[in-house]
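Supplementary Text 2. Reproducibility record for the structural model of the 127-residue chain.

All settings were left at their defaults, and a single model was retained for analysis rather than an ensemble. We include the record here because the model underlies the residue-level annotations in Supplementary Table 4.
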Amino acid sequence: MKRDMDLVRKILFKIEEEVDNKPKFDLTIDEYTMDQVAYHCSILYDGGYIKNYKSLGCGEGLVSFGVSGLTWSGHELLDKISNENVWNKTKQVVKNKGLPMVVDVIKDIATAIITSMTQAAIQEFTK
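Retained model, structure tokens:
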């Protein structure tokens, strides 16, 4: 299954909104299958962005899965990409420059965009 960074972002938002120190089972994201969401939760866990991931399967495939809250790294990533404008600009830079859509690149670009926006706001404020 291909990694979908838009889905990753949606999962991070959903976990931040709905998971509160207790496991959340069968997290749903509109327009995505349980297998897609579970797979992305699994790789978010492997990457250190969510605290826990457990799945239950049988011969026919996935039956259920559970996740718990975001880690510090998960919160940091989400904070960088939560603004829709920053997210869209980040994706545009990745696409236009032919960069890989990987977390480190996304974080670097989003940070640069946020820094630029911050500098512009400071300059405007200090006029």
